[in-house]
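Example record

The entry below shows one chain as it appears in the dataset: sequence first, then C-alpha cells.
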Amino acid sequence: MYKPTLALSLLLLASCGGDKRNITVVTYNVGLAIGFVPGAIERADAASAAVGAVEADVICLQEVWTTEHVAAMKAGTAERYIDSYFPAPQQIVHTEPSCAVEDVGDLLACMDEDCADACVDELPDCLFSYCALDFITLEDDCNRCVQANVGASTEEVLAACTEGGVEFAYGASFGTGILSVYPLIDTEELVFESTSNRRSVLHAVVDHPKGEVDVYCTHLTADLTPIPYPRDESYPTQSWEEEQKVQFEEIVAFMGNGKTGRTILLGDLNAGPETKNADPEFADHYDMIVDAGYVAPFVDDDGSCTFCPDNGISSVDSDATGKLIDHVFFKGFEGPFESSRVLDQTVDVETCGEVIDGAHSDHYGVQVTTSM
C-alpha cells in the first residue's frame, strides 16, 4: 500500500503547476463502439472534450474505432496534447463468401422479424434475446463475418458476408492511440493474433524533459461469452481466454526490449485481480505483468472497479461488484506514486431516443502521477 507523505504532497502540488520533474499518465477506454456500447455516436464529441480537459502528460486511449472518432479525438485534445500516435487499420478481406445465403438466412429473417424496430444500441440485446440459436450455430467463418459487421443493418451484413467478407470489425481499426504533451520520438506496433477485433500493443518513446520513457498502450481480447469463439480446431487458440493469455505472454516479452530503462504499460487489459472493491477477471493473466516486476499503484492504493455497475451504460449487472480491468503499470521508477480514478462523473447519455444517467464511457479511467 502506498502511503501519502509530505514529499508526495509537495510533488503533487508542484505537478499542478506543470512541474516537469513529474509524469502523470492516464488510461481510458472511451467506449466508442457503435452497436455495442450505448450512445457511442452521441457521446463522441463530449467524450473527446472531456479527455482534452484531463491534465496528464500521456494518455492511452482505447475504443476510438472509426476514422471520424479518431479525428474528433485529435481535434478535441489538440490544445494540450501536441503529439499523438494512432496506428492505421489493417483489414483482411476475403474474396470468397464467408456465408452461404441459406446459412445466414434464418438469422437475418429472425432479426428482421423481431428486431426491425431496434435502434443500433439495442441490436446486441435483441439478437441474444430472440435470435441467439441462429447466431451461435453459424459456421465459424460466417460467424466471424457477422461479428465483424457489428453496427450494420441486416441488409448490409447479408451483402458483406455472402459476397466476400472481412475479418475484423470497425474497418480493422485497433481502436487505440497515445496522446502526449511531449514529442513521441519513436513509435512501433506489435500486432497480435485476434478474433473479431484487431488487437495490438503500441510502443512510443516519450521525450520527457527529465529523460526518455518507454510507454506501451494496449487493449487486449475480452471474454465475449456468450458470443461463441468462432475458430476451428486448426487455430492456435480455442477460446477468448486462451487468445488473451497468448497476448499477455507476447506483451511481457515485447516490453523486455524497452530502450530507456523506465517502462509504463497502460490499457484495458480485460483482466484484473480481486480486490475489496472489484471481482477478478483472468487474474492469472494479470499476474504475468506483476511477476515480470511491474507495480500497479492504483490497484494497491484504491482497487476500485473501472467497469462498474453504477455506470448506466456499462453491461455490468447491477448486483455485481464490478471489475478492475483498466491498468497503469510502472517498472524502473522509484516512486512515490499518487493514483486516482478519473472521468467517472455521471453525465446524461442519449441512446435510442432516451436520456439515461451514464458516463462519458462504459469504463472509468485511471490516473497515476510519479516523480521522474
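Notes for this example: DSSP finds eleven helices and 13 strands in the chain. The chain has two domains: 21-91+174-371, 101-163.
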